[in-house]
């Protein structure tokens, strides 16, 4: 379980452009040591298995088995080390196998999506006519959770306001209300992102749902 962040930034207060801002729900610095161990461990297991099997089987078969056993986890860990989401000026960037760039002022779709399970997740889905990016905003479980840091939420809200899309502006307002809730150490029930998940659960729209414009507006009440 994670502890709730206790931000103190005041939403709505002007700030200078901080340059590229990371929007990772779990920071790369936190995950990197674990992912490196996964990659190294998988490679070692694959190599050792291949060496042992080579004593009894043709070398090519031993190597193939080693790659099949150790390869997927090593590749998964390597991709995890590359993954990241950040805002760089007007561009929202997402890196996986390749880096995708979405132009925030040209966004034509902005939606809040909910996934309910043992760990509930709320995400922001954006599309600018060419690129689609899904950005996790918060995870909640058993009275706790992890939310995007205050700087990330505020920068994202500012960026959403550069669009001409009404739903994007409404979501930006939700993010600002979330920041205000964090600034006063509000409980879960007073945080709009958590209330969005409770709203979906109360209507039985599980395990996945997309909030309507009216439901997004209700989060601002």
Kindly describe this structure:
It is built from six helices and nine strands. With 221 residues, the chain is an alpha+beta fold. α1 (28-53) runs antiparallel to α2 (59-82) and α3 (150-160) packs antiparallel against α4 (166-183). It is elongated.
Please outline the helices and strands.
Blueprint: E1 21-22, H1 28-53, H2 59-82, E2 84-88, E3 91-95, E4 99-103, E5 109-115, E6 120-127, E7 132-141, E8 144-147, H3 150-160, H4 166-183, H5 192-202, E9 208-210, H6 213-218
Antiparallel strand pairs: 1-2, 2-3, 3-4, 5-6, 5-9, 6-7, 7-8
Helix pairs in contact: 1-2, 3-4
H/E series, N to C? EHHEEEEEEEHHHEH
User: What's the pLDDT, averaged over the residues?
Assistant: 78
Class inferred from helices and paired strands: alpha+beta
Helix coverage percent: 40-55%
What are the segments in which pLDDT stays under 50 over at least 5 consecutive residues? 1-16
The backbone outline, from C-alpha atoms, is elongated
The end-to-end span amounts to 29 Å
Q: Characterize the largest beta sheet: strand count, sense, and whether it forms a barrel.
A: 5 strands, antiparallel
Continuous helix count = 6
Question: How many strands appear in the DSSP assignment?
Answer: 9
> Taking Cα atoms only, what radius of gyration do you get, to the nearest Å?
21 Å
Question: Within the largest sheet, what's the order of strands?
Answer: 8-7-6-5-9
Name the beta content range.
Answer: 15-25%
């Amino acid at each position: 379980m994670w502890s709730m962040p206790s931000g103190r930034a005041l939403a709505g207060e002007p700030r200078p452009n901080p340059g590229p801002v990371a929007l990772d729900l779990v920071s790369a610095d936190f995950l990197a040591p674990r992912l490196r161990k996964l990659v190294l461990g998988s490679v070692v297991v694959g190599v050792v298995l291949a060496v042992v099997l080579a004593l009894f089987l043709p070398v090519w078969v031993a190597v193939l088995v080693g790659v099949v056993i150790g390869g997927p986890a090593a590749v998964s860990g390597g991709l995890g080390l590359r993954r990241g989401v950040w805002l760089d000026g007007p561009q929202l960037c997402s890196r996986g196998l390749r880096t995708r760039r979405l132009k925030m002022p040209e966004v034509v779709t902005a939606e809040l999506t909910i996934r309910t399970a043992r760990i509930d997740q709320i995400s922001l889905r954006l599309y600018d006519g060419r690129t689609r990016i899904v950005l996790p905003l918060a995870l909640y479980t058993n009275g706790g959770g992890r939310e995007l840091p205050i700087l990330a939420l505020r920068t994202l809200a500012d960026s959403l306001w550069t669009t001409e899309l009404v739903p994007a502006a409404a979501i930006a307002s939700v993010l600002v209300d979330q920041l205000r809730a964090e600034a006063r150490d509000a409980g879960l029930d007073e945080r709009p992102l958590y209330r969005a998940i409770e709203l979906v659960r109360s209507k039985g729209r599980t395990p996945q749902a997309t909030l309507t414009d009216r439901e997004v507006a209700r989060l601002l009440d």
